[in-house]
């Protein structure tokens, strides 16, 4: 019984652990035999040729295709396509399609039997279907080429190039079997068998192949009313500059622009391709440069020397020469060509509007002046705005109209109704603005869907620099050849930060040149679309719901608003110095640009990056505030009276005058008196004497700080030490009270003495004898009393005075009485 149970357990384990493959010609997985240990399998491996697809038993064979990626297998290999020929199928083109590339094992296990083949799907016949294909590539299983072996064994980290080709026409096996004109999904499919796994699809690249006419067949006919094409050519990058205080070198968050401005870099390639495109008059007439003014400010700052942040310190930048050369080339090319300004720092205008940041909105729209100043004598179009992804809402449009915008380049996804291609009249806040429709199909094909989440191991041409414009070529062919909308206006709008190789940019320029040369399309300048009378067709805006989650959260915009308010208050406290040549608004612009960079559309979906840019902005604003400060005295102050003065030395290291208000901290024994705000001249020091009331004597500490008249802090607080010998009010009151009490007590004592003296005088008068003279006067004789003290201590009664002799006048008993 125990042996039976052990056998059942062993069989179950073998069944569970055996790998799964797909049966040839079906999507149904079948269980493969159990794999032997790795060491044994290496020792017993048959010759490599026997394992390659198509070599089994000495005859060709098809490799099984996994219906879905094996779990975990998709991340084990990287597919890089380096070439596709032809990019557009025409009557005079080659009859086969060729794809070249490279596969790399990026996993930690070896991969056996790596092979590649091409697959194509059904032709796309509607715009909705084409946009769906761009978002979510289909399986493309209508026809496929033969499997082409790439490597019998691919160890981790190893790479292997490949080349696969297939006939475009014909019913034979391995042909793509294309029989009519159209736009076809094309897939590059890589299969292999990871170690300890079954055969699986490891990587896929999906793109579109436009077929204008079949090889060897008649060429496509010319439409009677060709489409009108305008090509926007953006020159932009995400913000990297942190503008610093006057006299300090510019600071960049990284040095990536050194490579981008240099030969072979992204921005250098874009400018070079624009120069080559303009060499063709027709293509040049359709081309319009869209330049981010903040990129020009950054390039100019780099040209003068700059520093790059490296952790907690900074290092010298390497791109001085590259930035200087790129800027010189742009200055030479821009005059005579169509030119518009993107929102500065590619700012998210909708976010600015929803946060009521009108000051930053005006700054974002001031790029035309920057282009005029830095690219003179070029004359950019005025009043034209191309927002990020062409998305706007009514509130933003109203704010733009109030700031002088007359034309906006918007996606039909932001408009209702969204059908049609001609300019429309948009109404917001009782203002009418011209709306020029961007082609949403071309926008998605040229990179609007790049980076979107997809199934593991699946990439598109938009993700591959060497094929970045392939879907754009297909969408352009669809618009001009298969839409059925004669005379349609097609405004091609790549992403603002456009990443395409020189070959891809050249392929797009060549496609435009061929369309114009064959009269399949005609060029139209942007100036023609934004000029003339207001269109009669009305339309309304509707912000795309899919764009809402990407906007910055309210917590970030609230912090940006606080930073903007601080800088605005600082600017309001500044005045132009009589001897200077810079005003407050001009001086504050670099710091306002720092704040604006924190709301770039480049930070959509990346709150941490937005907060990092905002932190840089607030640090520079704080450094600006620190240039106006109060200096504490080196020795303690001495106050000798109740009404004293506190001498505060204020320094202003800014090139503008600043109005300051001195604020004293709450200190027991010191009461500040009313004191007006004071104007501190530029680059000077001034001692301000602050009246205070000293309420007590002894040692005192007073904290002194500066603010603007509206209360924004300036500099750091300083502590003043003082020694007071002044009598306080309490002391004076106590002293006066004591003096009054003393006077009262003295007066009382004097009064009592006087009263006592008077009482004593009355007693003497009673004991004195009184004699009445004949003439009526009264004579008072002193009464001499005498007494003897008895033995008991009591005074004896005084003896009577002796009677005077008889006959003396005036005496008692005289004869005349």
TrEMBL record:
Location of the region described as Disordered in the Swiss-Prot/TrEMBL record: 22-55, 756-817
Basic and acidic residues compositional bias, start-end: 789-800
Pfam families per UniProt: DUF6049
Signal sequence residues: 1-22
Membrane-spanning residues: 726-747
KW Secreted (keyword) present: no
Keywords assigned by UniProt, alphabetized: Membrane, Signal, Transmembrane, Transmembrane helix
Sequence ranges of Low complexity compositional bias: 31-50, 808-817
UniProt-listed InterPro entries: DUF6049
Superkingdom assignment: Bacteria
Protein's name in the database: Glycoprotein
